[in-house]
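During the no-cost extension, the postdoctoral fellow (Dr. R.K.) reprocessed legacy sequence entries with the updated structure-token encoder. One reprocessed record is reproduced below for audit purposes.
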Amino acid sequence: MSAVAAVVVAAAVSACGLVVFGVVSWPAFSSSNVLRAVTTVGQVLTLAVIAVSVWLVRRRRAARTATLLSWAGLSGFVTVSLGLPLAATKLYLHGVSVDQEFRTQYLTRLTDSAALRDMNYADIPPFYPAGWFWLGGRAADLLGLDGWEAFKPYSICSLAVAAVLALVLWTQLVRRDLAIVAATVTAVVTVTFASPEPYSAVVILLTPPALVLAWGALHRRGHRGGWAAVVGTGLFLGLAATFYTLFLGWTAFTVVLMALVAAAFAIRRDGTWRAALAPAVRLVVIAVISGLVALIVWTPYLLAALRGEPADSGTAMHYLPASGAGVPLPMIDFSLTGAMCLLGTVWLVVRATTSRRAAALGIGVLAVYAWYLLSMTATAAGSTLLAFRLEPMLVALLGVAAVFGFVEFSHWIVLATSDNSRVRVALVVVASLCLVSFAQNIPQFLAGDIAVAYSDTDGDGERGDRKPPGAASYYPDVDAALTEQLGRPRDEIVVLTTDTTFLSYYPYFGFQALTSHYANPLAQFRERAEVIEQWTELDSPDALVAALDDAPWRAPDAFVLREDADGYTLRLTEDVYPNDPNVRRYTVTFPKEVFDDPRFTVSDTGPFVVVTRNS
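Re-encoded structure tokens follow.
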């Protein structure tokens, strides 16, 4: 029941905060320091509320009030830290550029319909986990918002809710004051380093307490007790499976590593191989539970694969930035983050064999480094494990360890000074100042992502910085032309365009995705690109119509193209991994004469040429 109450409080606080921020006419974050100043005030106030809740818990006063204050303060902090810097734009961090484009498209798709459908392609089930996007789509539909418009508030609200759920979980594992501080530090770190990818950030927020829970489930004597932890661990892995495939792989790898360590300890303790049976049984139960939860979103794709539908191997793992070509060592950086990670590392080493929390978090840290090494090794086989995306997870784990380390080391310092109350106060003040300093730099750290949110043109054809909008301001006219000329609902129309931001704002299906890296393997991205190139080489309407009719996939009902001196152009992409950048863009051109026929309607809309195929 506490989890349900926490979700309600966090959602209410976040929603109310975003509504209040939205009624004020703010200057753009990128052109004024006003929003940053107000954000700092909000962060200090919400951290003060959290501090009051910790004080009440320490004094054992007003337990319910302390709980509500901790929930409200934590969700308020997340909302203020992200909502205020973005208050003058309708777009979320990084706008609708690059990866955020396909994420917005997915939310738009699942806002249009609750059915599990691919974000881009018609008639195939989704490959990308739909959990976070489906929940957001249902919320957007309930509130009457377009998917793109709901992306920002839903992202912020989901992070606020996840932060408070992590607090609820922590309170079941450690004493309440420690739980509040641990959840707060995790939220601060996650908002700083992972918030541009909100659905993965949700998993990061929950991972540290989930690992402690998993270690408690696996590292137990015999078969008795701990089954609630087993179920909780299975549910967490299932959540990861429905939200983010990479984190499912890593968390499953970590839990298996925990089971192996637990089995080794059990064998050493009991002197028999049979002692390994208990952690093995628990691991199997965890796998079954997580598998059943995963099937909620994976069933349609698995059924299609079992039917033998043609599929490519996919190129989602074909990306190796510089940050993925070496192991991250944040604990040796000369910064506040580095100091925090160093403190966490020291505590993990000191307490590895004497603290279950340290053992669990330490195994998680080792699993991150093992994943990095495996990913770099996989490059020899022509792929990666996208290990660079685990760096925020590493910092979050070390940040939580730093909380426990600070508390224990501070206790030693206080004892060494004869329990001097002034020393205790000084330590608390120093820690509080470090936390405020870290928090107030969140907007600065995210400044690049915030700037893109203000410079991109939104679905209403406006920019948050009030500068002249880009070509996306003509999208409403393109949409009007398509619906008027074809006379069908948007989700019954397939559009061939490489201005794929249009598909992020309107739930048309695309004939081709922006890149192969986020394309559904069932869609056969490379083969589609080859067919498109063949179409551009045709020289008559009859030939094009015949080719469209003979396409192995549902053919485009419309084309949204650009015009140049040679004809109507599309910009296609191909995977060029192991190069960095891993995408090569190239242009193909349709001769104008292939659309000069009564079977096509051609109209100019701003910089776009809209071609619809007549029945």
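The mean pLDDT is 92. The beta strands are 494-497, 509-510, 558-564, 567-575, 583-590, 600-605, 608-613. The remaining legacy entries will be reprocessed before the final report is submitted.
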